[in-house]
């Protein structure tokens, strides 16, 4: 029987807007809306055996709102993409400062290093390594829950489907999007990861 992980994007933050302020690896807190939505979702989810989280405050706060507890461990490789000088600015401010850089990030994301930060390939490599580590430490009968970020999840979906990273902006990723991964090891093109509804967390 394959190991089972549940992965979620953090709740709505004060930077998710409107207006949208670019977070990347900068810290932001859940908004009142984000806390309330996570608390409501948590009432529909089973209590996991173990929780692993990105160390970002917004992920730690999401875990607390969902389950009323702190994570059992954090995984640095599951932090959000580093967007360099984009971080902390409104999207409109980035576009005004460097229209070409913003256009490249929006439409050809796999072929650029946004804000001089991290490429999608670099993000994907560390995200896959982080998930592999979580899977390696998971027991066969454990329900393991992972709180992370939209960028991380998008690159994992691309890896799981063996899809080009230029598909990154086309992958829908609302706050609190929930996924299930059934695998002993994450493999490129394995198609082991799927989006689920709260009632499917068993």
Question: Could you walk me through the main structural features you see in this protein, from its secondary elements to its overall organization?
Answer:
This protein is of the alpha/beta class and 202 residues long. It has a single domain (4-83, 119-200), classed as Phosphoglycerate mutase-like (Rossmann fold, 3-Layer(aba) Sandwich). 33% of the residues lie in helices and 12% in strands. Helix 2 links the parallel strand 2 and strand 3. The two termini are 15 Å apart. The model has no long low-confidence stretch (mean pLDDT 96).
Entry summary:
By secondary structure, this protein is an alpha/beta fold. 33% of the residues lie in helices and 12% in strands. The longest helix has 17 residues, at 120-136.
List the helices and strands and how they pair.
Blueprint lengths: L3 E6 L22 H11 L7 E4 L3 H11 L5 E2 L16 H7 L1 H9 L12 H17 L7 E5 L1 H12 L16 E5 L10 E3 L7
Parallel strand pairs: 1-4, 2-3, 2-4
Antiparallel strand pairs: 1-5, 5-6
Helix pairs in contact: 1-2, 3-4, 5-6
Q: Helices and strands, in N-to-C order?
A: EHEHEHHHEHEE
Radius of gyration: 16 Å
Instruction: Give the strand order, joined by hyphens, for the main sheet.
Output: 3-2-4-1-5-6
Shape: globular
Q: What portion of residues belong to β-strands?
A: 5-15%
Structure annotation, total helices: 6
CATH topology: Rossmann fold
State the distance separating the first and last CA atoms.
Answer: 15 Å
CATH architecture: 3-Layer(aba) Sandwich
Q: Can you identify the CATH superfamily?
A: Phosphoglycerate mutase-like
Tell me how many strands there are: 6
Helix content: 25-40%
What oligomeric assembly is this protein in?
Answer: single chain
Q: Which CATH first-tier class would you pick?
A: Alpha Beta
Counting structural domains, the number is: 1
- Overall mean pLDDT: 96
Specify the structural class: alpha/beta
């Amino acid at each position: 029987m394959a190991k089972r992980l549940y992965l979620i994007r953090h709740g709505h933050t004060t930077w998710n807007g409107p207006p949208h302020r670019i977070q990347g690896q900068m810290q932001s807190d859940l908004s009142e809306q984000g806390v309330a939505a996570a608390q409501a979702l948590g009432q529909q989810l089973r209590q996991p055996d173990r929780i692993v989280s990105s160390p970002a405050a917004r992920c730690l706060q999401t875990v607390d709102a969902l389950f009323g507890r702190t994570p059992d461990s954090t995984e640095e490789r599951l932090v959000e993409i580093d967007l360099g000088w984009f971080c902390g600015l409104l999207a409109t401010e980035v576009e005004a400062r460097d229209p070409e850089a913003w256009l490249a990030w929006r439409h050809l994301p796999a072929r650029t290093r946004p804000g001089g930060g991290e490429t999608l390939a670099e993000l994907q490599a560390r995200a896959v390594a982080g998930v592999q580590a979580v899977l390696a430490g998971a027991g066969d009968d454990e329900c393991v829950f992972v709180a992370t970020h939209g960028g991380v999840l998008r690159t994992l979906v691309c890896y799981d489907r063996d899809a080009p990273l230029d598909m990154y902006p086309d992958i829908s990723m609302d706050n609190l999007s929930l996924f299930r991964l059934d695998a002993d090891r994450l493999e490129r093109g394995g198609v082991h990861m799927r989006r689920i509804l709260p009632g499917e967390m068993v």
